[in-house]
Write the structure tokens for this entry.
Amino acid sequence: MNSIKKVAVIPNLTKKCAYETSLDVIKRLHSLDMSVYMIKELQNSFSGREITFCEDTDDLCRRADMVLTIGGDGTIIHAARHASFFNKPLLGINTGTLGFAAELEKDELDMLSRLRDGSYTVEKRMMLSITHTGENGTKEFRAMNDAVISRGSLSRLIDIDVSLAAERGYICSYRADGLIVSTPTGSSAYSLAAGGPVVEPTMKCILMTPVCSHSLFARPVVFSHYSRLAVTASCDDDTEVFLTIDGAVTVTVRRSDTIIISEAETETEFIKLKDRTFYKVLNDKFTEKGRDI
């Protein structure tokens, strides 16, 4: 692989040890003759260091060769939506609790030297494109993990209908607390907790997992990545139904709204520095930290 010269560093300073780890990372990158880029709002926290500050995250990703996050899985997911626009690979350093998507722990920073040597691989993972059409128009989103249709805290069960968008072919209906549509990467997140299958993240497919469905025969379904799913959802009182993208963006869904979910044109690219399998990561993260699968 090519040697990395310019690194966009995106820390989540609310995480324990994230600031100290960020200072260590910046020092190590400079020692490797790499340039460091950060967003302008962090300038006061990292003043006095050789850092180029950019106006926003898109400008940051545009100018750098790669994106390095310091925090938890949420930090990686946030950065992935921006990095994928510019086809920039992503490397996560975990200072959170689980850090399932992170490549390095904070005691493994010596491995950053492999970026300079080009001793790394890039793993591509599909993303979802989500289009929500309602009375206020159409909004488009992308997700690295999942799109979740769910009821509000005071709502009754919601009725969810799923069909193939292009063929208008009916697939199924659920009366449930919600529905998770996820990528293979997201199969080990909320979908896993709801009883969905674990899928190797380099595969291309779309997973659909009902949440607490009131049906004896409700099961997760795996679709081809070519599929375009059309989803409608409603509650008896037509309120308190939400569409949530990667746990970060939430949109209110009305009875007449339509949600189209398909494979996104862009992918998330993860830098891999270690020689380990997905299943090794799965066991290390979920069992050694007391999260038995």
